Structure formats: structure tokens, C-alpha cells
Amino acid sequence: MKNIVNNSIDSTLLSPITYIDTNNESSITSILRQSIFENIRQRIEKTPDSNSTRTEDINTINLKDYSRLQNFTPVFISIIQHTTFEDGMNNDAIEIVEAYYNRNSFATIMWINSMYGQFAGDEHIIDSLLRIIAFIEFPQSLEQTFIPMVRAALSDITMNCQESAIMVCETWRTIECLKALEDTEFSTPYIGEYAHKVIDELKTELGINVA
Amino acid sequence: MLLRKIASSKRWNLTHISSLITREDALFTGDAISDLRTQQNTISVWQTPDLNTNNIKDIIAVMALNCDKIDKIFYVALDEKELERRGMIIKNTRGSCPPITDTNILDRHRDISEVDYWHLGLLAEYIYELVNEGKVYSATATDVKSYIEDVITNNKLDINQVDDKKRVPLGYTPLSSCFSCQNNPSYNNNMKTMKAAGLI
């Protein structure tokens, strides 16, 4: 994976964030439209025929899309840092992930997981990633890849991510989520109350007797 | 009592304030104030006699319909007398929620009006106290969905005015063929951004 990134993209492009004035919160979207991206676009290799059904081509497309997303990470992290996440409200970060997910779901999921690995100690980034995951409805088969992130967020009561992890569980509504919630000690009474409502709903839905 | 949606509970959480603001005289986070957006110096709240589900479900439905997606809602119940004691002015003003056709629901809207810098702080302080006394209430996304369904069943809502992000989970067909993007300027801007970045 690393080789592909290094072979296909000039290493000077790996930090596009340095071009952005991070103090300017007025319009992240307009910042992003700066000519730097045109510059990047011109220097990134073209993907193989996207209509190809050959396994090799599909793998190549996935890897190239993934490496593009990885190079987009610094910019995306900047977007997250300047984005307000509110219950039930869409935002730029969600829309970007959703748009890319609709284009290449595997690359997007790998990318989100790679950002989790990279920023595991950063409460705001992890909380934001979880809120993005909760907002976008992934197919159940792909959701499993996020379970470690959800479990980690639930288990660390010093981090402020429990609420967003519960929101993910509420969206997914699986037995794994139920187990994760049942194993959790919650940081505040109201987060606990919310979680227990979700637990009760899941028990009913999944046919597990409520004690 | 008056219900106010909490857009982000972590902004109000005392447990984590020391990790966010290290100064010793910190009271509550500056971010908490951003949960109290004023419009024409008013703050929107909804009146309910109590927290009985039958009395609050229409209000929760309205709060949800004013969001982009059906999601869980955290809210606090503000005591009118306590607000008045803190110098707040409460006015009856009809609420705004285009899909809602029943004016009885919209007439339950109130404005905390003539909010200045001082009273915004006092209101934030009051909400902060409620949150840290654990007086935050929640409606799960499933609850919210069922409350909206009740509003629909009781003909209090024009479903054709509900956008696709909320129509589809309610079991209605989307109005547009690409319900996540059409007629959405923000989405289109992001698509342009991603195209320019070579991401699509």
C-alpha cells in the first residue's frame, strides 16, 4: 500500500494542509476550492478504466482511491476541526464522506479506519468520525469493520466519545452493538439513560428478553 | 415548562470541562454558548405542561423535522418561573416548521426574547446547571420516528414538505432520484471540491 502511495504521488503533495490558513473558520468550503487541489489533481495518476470488471483492475482502483483519500486526510482533518457536529444536522465533513462512499465504499471504509488508527488519541477527531459513521447508513456487512472503534470509544470514559458511539450502535442495531453497550459503564447519568433506552429497544428488536 | 433542544451535550458536560478549558475560574465552555443561537435576539423554546410523552411528542417531532435527519434528541426542560426570576422575557410566538399543518402545535412555541449578552450568559448558566444535575432528557431516534409517525397519522403534517433524508426512513418514496444530492447546494459544492482535489 505504502509503495503505491509513494510511487503514484509526489511526496511534496502529502501535506496540502500547510497551504490552509487554519485560523480562518469563515468558509472551509471556499478554502478547499483553492487552486492547490487543481494542482494535486494534475499530479495524481489516472485510474484504470473504472468500468472494468477484472479483479486486478478493481483492486487497482480501490488502492488508488484509497491512496488518494489518504492524501486528502490532512485537509479532511482540518475540515473536521472546523466543523460543528450537532445531533441530526448535516455538515461538510459528512457530505464529503457520503459522496466518496457512494463512489467507492471499500476505499472510504478503509480510509476511515486508517484515520481512526492515526488519530486514536484525539478525542475530537474520533468523536467526529463516529458521528459521521452514525449519520451515514453503511450496509451491515461493512459496519463490522468499525466495531473496534465503537468498542474503544465506549470503553474509555475519560474520552468524550461515548455519546457518539451509542449513536452508532443506535443506527446499526446489531447484536454486537447490544453486547458492546451492555459491557459499558457510562460517564454521565443522561448518557447512561440514553444508552439504556437503546439497549431496551435492541433487546426487544433482537428478541432478547428484557430483565 | 419550556423545552429546549441540546444540539451537542458534550459542550455542556462539566466532567470534561477541565480537559477543554484549563483556567481555574472556568464556569462553562464558550462552545456551550454556540448551542444557544439567537435569531433577532430571541431563543426558541416549546411549551409543555409536563414531560408526559403525550404532551411532548408533537414538540419532539417538530424539533426533529427542523433537523436534516431523524436522530436522537437531547433536551432540557426550563422552568418558566426560574427563567423569569433570572430576568428572561418569554413571549408567545407561533413556531416555524413548514411540514406541520396543525397550528395548535406551532402555537406552543415561545421565544425567550430581548436576549442580550448578559441574559444569554444567564440562560447558559441555567442550562449548564440542569445538565450537570442530570436533568437532560433524551428521545432515541426510534422514539422520534414514532412521534413523527403519530403526527402524520393524526393529519398534522404535510408529508410532501418533508425532505427525502427524513421521508425515506419514514417509509415514503423519495421525492428526487438522488435524494442525497439533488437541490442541495452544499453537496454540490463539496462535489466540486472533491473533483478539484482529484478525489472523484
List the helices and strands and how they pair.
The complex is a heterodimer of chains A (211) and B (200).
Chain A lengths: L1 H7 L19 H5 L2 H9 L11 H27 L10 H12 L1 H14 L4 H13 L4 H4 L3 H9 L6 H11 L2 H8 L6 H17 L6
Chain B lengths: L1 E5 L10 H4 L9 H4 L9 E5 L5 H13 L7 E6 L1 H6 L3 E4 L10 H4 L2 E5 L3 H16 L4 E3 L1 H13 L10 H4 L17 H12 L4
Antiparallel strand pairs in B: 1-2, 1-3, 2-5, 3-6, 4-5
Question: What would you note in describing this structure?
Answer:
The complex is a heterodimer of chains A (211) and B (200). With 211 residues, chain A is mainly α. Chain A is 64% helix and 0% strand. The longest helix of chain A has 27 residues, at 55-81. The termini of chain A are far apart. The model of chain A is unreliable at 1-22 and 42-46 (pLDDT under 50). Chain B is globular, with a radius of gyration of 19 Å. Chain B is built from nine helices and six strands. In chain B, 38% of the residues lie in helices and 14% in strands. Chain B has 200 residues and is an alpha+beta fold. The chains are: A mainly alpha (211), B alpha+beta (200). The interface between A and B is large, with 46 and 46 residues.
